[in-house]
Design goal:
The chain has two domains: 9-252, no CATH class; 253-304. The protein has no helices and 17 strands. It has strands at 9-10, 14-17, 26-29, 104-109, 115-124, 130-139, 146-155, 161-170, 176-187, 194-205, 211-222, 227-237, 240-250, 255-265, 270-280, 283-293, 299-300. The strands form two sheets. It has a 14-stranded antiparallel sheet, with no helix packed on it. A three-stranded antiparallel sheet has the order 1-2-3, with no helix packed on it. Strand 2 and strand 3 form a beta hairpin. Residues 81-95 have a biased composition (Basic and acidic residues). Belongs to the ESV1 family. One of its GO terms (molecular function) is starch binding.
Length: 304
C-alpha cells in the first residue's frame, strides 16, 4: 500500500514546522494579546492504494458535530471543524470511509433537523478505465454549518492508479476551509520508469478574526531514485503575515536542499532567513543569510 507522508501543524499561538524528512523542528510564535478569541483547526486522514472493504463502518464520533447529536440516524455526521495545519494522513477505515462497489444514493434528516446525503458509484471506460467514487455532505437545519466530501479511486490497464479527495466546509462561527490531496502511480511515456506523485493543498480562514492560512505540498519519485519534494505556505494572524517555501531534490547522486521564509507586520517590519545545502560524493556546502528590515527601511543581513 502506498502511503502519503505529508504533514504540518498550526496551533493557537504558534506556527510550527514539524521535523519532516530529517529537518530540525522550528517554531514561530505570534502575539495574540490583541485577540482574545482563538482559532484552532484539526483533521487527520490517510488513504492506501489497497481497495477498501465494502460497507460503511462509520466512526464519525470523533468529529463532535455541533448541530447533529452522536446518537442520531445512520447518516454521515456533520464535520464542522476546519482541518489542522501540517496533518498526517491516517487510514481511511479510521474515517469510516469506504468506496462502495455498488451504486448508492441516499439522504435523510436527523432528529435535530439537520440533513445529510451520500452517493457512490462507478464509471467504466476504454482501456480498462475504472473510477469509483463517493460523495457525501450535510448541513444544519438553519444552514449555518455545512460540509462536503468527495473521494475517488481511478485505474486502467496501463497500471495507472489514482487516489484523491476534496473536502470543504463552514461552521456557525464563520470559519471556512477547503482541502484536497491526490496520489498518482503511473509509467512515464518516454523513460518507461514508474513514477509516484503526491500532492495536497489546504486552506482555512477564521470568521471572527483576521486569520487564515494556505499550504501546498508535493512529492515526486521515479524508479531510478530521482526525488523532488517541496512546499509553499502562507498565513496571517491579525497584524502579522508569514511565508515559507522549501524544497529538496535528489537525482541519484547529488542532493540539493533549500529554504526561504519570511514574515512581516503591518508596520512594515520584516525579517526572515534563507539557505541552501548541496551534497555530492561525500562533499557538502551550505550558504545562506538571515535578514531584518526595520519599519524605517534599514536592512541588516549577516551571512550564515
Amino acid at each position: 500500500a502506498l502511503m502519503i507522508p505529508i504533514g504540518s501543524c498550526c496551533s493557537e499561538v504558534s506556527i510550527r514546522r514539524a521535523a519532516r524528512f530529517g529537518r530540525k523542528a522550528e517554531e514561530w510564535r505570534l502575539d495574540r494579546r490583541k485577540s482574545p478569541r482563538r482559532f484552532r483547526v484539526h483533521a487527520s486522514f490517510t488513504m492506501p492504494f489497497a481497495s477498501p472493504e465494502p460497507g460503511y463502518a462509520s466512526k464519525q464520533e470523533k468529529f463532535s458535530p455541533r448541530c447533529t447529536p452522536k446518537n442520531s440516524s445512520d447518516g454521515p455526521q456533520s464535520r464542522d471543524t476546519p482541518p489542522k495545519r501540517d496533518t498526517g494522513i491516517a487510514n481511511e477505515k479510521d474515517w469510516g470511509i469506504s468506496l462502495l462497489n455498488e451504486n448508492v444514493n441516499e439522504s435523510g434528516t436527523n432528529e435535530d433537523g439537520s440533513t445529510w446525503y451520500r452517493e457512490s458509484g462507478e464509471d467504466l471506460g476504454e482501456n480498462g478505465y475504472r473510477c469509483r467514487g463517493t460523495r457525501m455532505g450535510g448541513q444544519c437545519k438553519d444552514g449555518s454549518s455545512e460540509w462536503k466530501e468527495t473521494w475517488w479511486e481511478k485505474s486502467d490497464w496501463t497500471g495507472y492508479k489514482e487516489l484523491g479527495v476534496e473536502k470543504s466546509g463552514r461552521n456557525a462561527e464563520g470559519d471556512s476551509w477547503w482541502e484536497t490531496w491526490q496520489e498518482v502511480l503511473h509509467q512515464d511515456e518516454w523513460s518507461n520508469l514508474a513514477r509516484i506523485e503526491r500532492s495536497a493543498q489546504k486552506q482555512a480562514k477564521s470568521g471572527p478574526e483576521n486569520a487564515g492560512w494556505f499550504e501546498k505540498w508535493w512529492e515526486k519519485y521515479d524508479g531510478k531514485g530521482w526525488t523532488e519534494k517541496g512546499a509553499h505556505k502562507y498565513g496571517r494572524l491579525n497584524e502579522q503575515s508569514w511565508w515559507e517555501k522549501w524544497g529538496e531534490h535528489y537525482d541519484g547522486g547529488s542532493v540539493v536542499k533549500w529554504t526561504d521564509k519570511w514574515a512581516e507586520t503591518e508596520l512594515g517590519t520584516k525579517w526572515g532567513d534563507k539557505w541552501e545545502e548541496k551534497f555530492f560524493a561525500g562533499i557538502g556546502s551550505r550558504q545562506g543569510e538571515t535578514w531584518h528590515v526595520s519599519s524605517g527601511g534599514e536592512r541588516m543581513s549577516p551571512l550564515i
